[in-house]
Design brief:
It comes from Acidovorax benzenivorans. This protein is of the alpha+beta class. The protein has helices at 17-28, 36-46, 60-67, 69-89, 109-127, 158-170, 180-184, 221-224; strands at residues 47-57, 93-98, 101-106, 138-150, 154-156, 176-179, 191-200, 203-213. Strands 1, 2, 3, 4, 5, 6, 7 and 8 form an 8-stranded mixed β-sheet that branches. The chain starts with 16 loop residues before the first helix and ends in a 9-residue tail after the last helix.
């Protein structure tokens, strides 16, 4: 039997979750041998080769236990104020924010890495004028590869999963970890990354820890506007 995939009503809905749900619902009612057209429609509408940046605020349990959830929510808001301009200034797009995590996509891993570095630099500048109980620290994971991107809503794919594990579960405060695919796609001769191997959720995960740049990074406007020049990251 021939099946015609559900079509989006306009260009705006072509990448939204409602359209994806309609396609998935249709797929679940279609014999496995006839799902090719539906899968092709999903890939055409949603799959993009992107670099994924996952930022995770550090110290949730400790800070909320000591100062309360509202205090931590205010810190999350402050982190977002630093991260969004850094992401957008490096050509990225914030897809979603969940609790103390921020998820963004970029065309290249270099853009994602530069956004992470600019975020750390901006937070470092903020921390020079904040009391210790409000110090802002994040960990970062970066992946790169074909990913299902639902505009301003969600991300799905193996590199997304790995970036989450690196940023949320493995990376320490102010540490940036890249997947093998992301690290391999960085331009040669610009960054130094050290390989690290991890086991998490029953899987072996090879990662690369950002160590340093092999060039002088320009001062990001976020830092310059605050009148403070921390040590270059």
């Amino acid at each position: 039997m021939h099946h015609t995939s559900a079509q989006p009503t306009d260009a705006t809905t072509a990448h939204d979750k409602g359209y994806l749900r309609r396609l998935l619902s249709e797929r679940n009612q279609t014999p496995t041998s006839d799902t090719g057209a539906i899968d092709a429609a999903i890939e055409q509408a949603f799959v993009r080769s992107v670099a994924i940046l996952v930022l995770d605020m550090c110290g949730f349990s400790r800070i909320t236990q000591r100062h309360g959830i509202i205090h931590f929510l205010a810190m999350i808001h402050q982190m977002e104020q630093a991260a969004r301009p850094a992401i957008e200034g490096n050509g990225g797009e914030v897809i979603k924010q969940e609790a103390d995590n921020l998820f963004a996509v970029f065309a290249t891993p270099e853009q994602a890495l530069e956004a992470a570095l600019d975020t750390l630099r901006a937070l470092s500048a903020m921390n020079t004028v904040l009391p210790p109980e409000r110090a802002l620290n994040v960990s970062a994971g970066i992946g790169f590869g074909p990913t299902l991107v639902i505009a301003r809503e969600d991300l799905f794919g193996p590199e997304m999963n790995c970036a989450c594990k690196l940023g949320e579960d493995i990376a320490a405060a102010n540490e940036i970890l890249l997947t093998q695919a992301a690290c391999a796609s960085l331009p040669a001769g610009r960054y130094v990354c050290a390989r690290t191997d991890h086991q998490i959720s029953g899987m072996d995960l090879q990662a690369h820890r950002f160590e340093r740049c092999l060039f002088e990074r320009p001062l990001h406007p976020l830092v310059a506007d605050r009148g403070h020049c921390p040590t270059a990251i």
